[in-house]
Amino acid sequence: MIIGVAKEIKNNENRVALTPAGTATLVKAGQRVLFEHSAGIGSGFSDESYIKAGAEIVTDKKELFDKAEMIMKVKEPLAPEYDLFHGGQILFTYLHLAPEPALTKALLAKKVIGIAYETIERNHSLPLLIPMSEVAGRMAVQVGAHWLEKTFSGKGILLGGVPGVESAQVVIIGGGVVGTHAAKMAIGMGARVAIIDKSSERLAYLDDIFGGRVTTIMSNSYNIADWVKQADLLIGAVLLPGAKAPKLVSEEMVKTMEPGSVIVDVAIDQGGSIETIDRATTHSDPTYVKYGVVHYSVANMPGAVARTSTLALTNATIEYALQIASKGWKEALRADSGLAKGLNVFEGKVTFPGVAEAHNLPY
Ligand code: NAD
Fold first, then answer.
1. How many Å apart are CA 93 and CA 3, to the nearest integer?
2. Looking at CB atoms within 10 Å, which of 25, 37, 214, 274 has the fewest?
3. 269: annotated active-site residue
4. Which of 58, 118, 25 is nearest to 319 (CA)?
5. What is the pLDDT of residues 51-106, one digit of tens each?
């Protein structure tokens, strides 16, 4: 199969869909990889490294799309890319079609076979979302520590304290993938850590793996209010699959936080879980201050650590790309029902219920 790796055109998106190692894996399996000139630069991978791995560099985006049987990307296509697709072409990327009527319409009109990373399932989890949650969870503590510094409007405390000086209190709401990885980092930096979750099984698991290093708390508004008040760094990490994030932290609760405390709401990509966070911020202007509290709500946190994210993403996508390329998409989806869940559009029809519902289209 001819696989085309396109350069991302979204503002500040430095990730790329394949690493040189991933390219080499596909080439070794007999596939042909066309790589758009300089697509890997933002992740620190030169064209030469892709040539060495067996890819052919293509400078003209249109030529890449014309020749490729499968396009691999990171983000959903943007308007200038819609016309580049052709009928029967496979698109393998994060698609997030539900909030994107124009893109959905374009892919249907072009009869693209859209396989979305985010809806592929394995063992009741979403294997191509996990790596980005791992990145965002770990990053939440890193950015939180940064914004707690006095120069950045924070209260001027070190997460781990020092001998003789108390460490910071980190409170994480949602103990899933993001929350667990945030906890790992916060513990590693010497902070005091509390995790609030609504699932008693999850709290038991977290208690098992972290032992006495975290305090686990059942989620209810009384407990949340109590712990928000004590938080130097509050991390929002809840998820209700397929739904908007619940607003668990009210404006009144935020007012009880000490000035210079920091909120990092990772759940902002699902609407956010904190009442005082009503909009996503960007990497170029990531925070604002409300009631003296620093609010950080960047919706694409992994984009800031593009190299790590690109490596983690390829680690997760490569086995699926290999299956699709070597077996053909139909056979690959027939052989793996979890991969089949990734099919969102095909032959001008929506094939994923959530997307059909969002656009009032038949399914
Ligand atoms: P997950 O499903 O692994 O974990 C979610 C956790 O939230 C679960 O443990 C669940 O029990 C808990 N939860 C649900 N309702 C709750 C409530 N009322 N009180 C307390 N806990 C509750 O999800 P995840 O992979 O950790 O993702 C968390 C969020 O982070 C999602 O919204 C995801 O889209 C987002 N995310 C954002 C970025 C970014 O760049 N901003 C990157 C990756 C993931």
1. 13
2. 37
3. yes
4. 25
5. 999 999 999 999 999 999 999 999 999 999 999 999 999 999 999 898 889 999 99
For residue 28, the CA-to-ligand 1 centroid distance in Å is 37
Which DSSP state fits 289?
Answer: E
Cα 80 to Cα 5, 77, 84, 156, 250: the distances in Å are: 16, 8, 8, 45, 40
Instruction: Give the CATH number of domain 2-120+306-358; options: 3.20.20.70, 3.40.50.720, 1.10.357.10, 3.30.1330.30.
Output: 3.40.50.720
Our answer to whether residue 265 is catalytic in this structure is no
Q: Phi first, then psi: give them for residue 322, nearest 5 degrees.
A: -60, -45
What is the whole-number distance in angstroms between the Cα of residue 193 and the centre of ligand 1? 17
This model of the complex carries an ipTM of 0.98
Q: Where in the chain is the domain with CATH 3.40.50.720?
A: 2-120+306-358, 132-299
Question: In Å, what is the CA distance from 185 to each residue of 66, 230, 275, 283, 310?
Answer: 45, 19, 26, 21, 20
